[in-house]
Design a protein that fits this description.
about 25% helix, 3 helices, binds iron/sulfur cluster, mainly alpha, globular, about 0% strand
């Protein structure tokens, strides 16, 4: 089963990404206000490898902050934790 990216932005906020020196729950510096990557053509491999999956539907919420929190909660993670 394949899942289409919902362009919700949560995967650019929730995870820590060492390549980008990005901490848990902190929006990536390259995330635009439209939830699109502003360096899409030059984004690191870790971002290129990320695939949408069922999590993208499980974390649906009205705001980006809520979606990112739900994403972290699924993995038992909290920002700064
Ligand atoms: S570089 Fe782009 S795709 Fe990767 S986390 Fe940042 S905004 Fe998202």
């Amino acid at each position: 089963m394949t899942f289409a990216c919902t362009m919700c932005g949560a995967c650019c906020v929730g995870p820590d990404i060492s390549t980008l020196n990005k901490s848990l729950g902190v929006p990536c510096a390259h995330l635009g206000t439209d939830h699109r990557c502003t360096i899409y053509d030059e984004r690191p491999q870790v971002c290129r490898d990320y695939q949408a999956d069922e999590l993208c539907t499980l974390i649906a919420a009205d705001t980006l902050e809520e979606r990112a929190e739900k994403l972290l909660a699924i993995f038992g993670l909290t920002p700064g934790g």
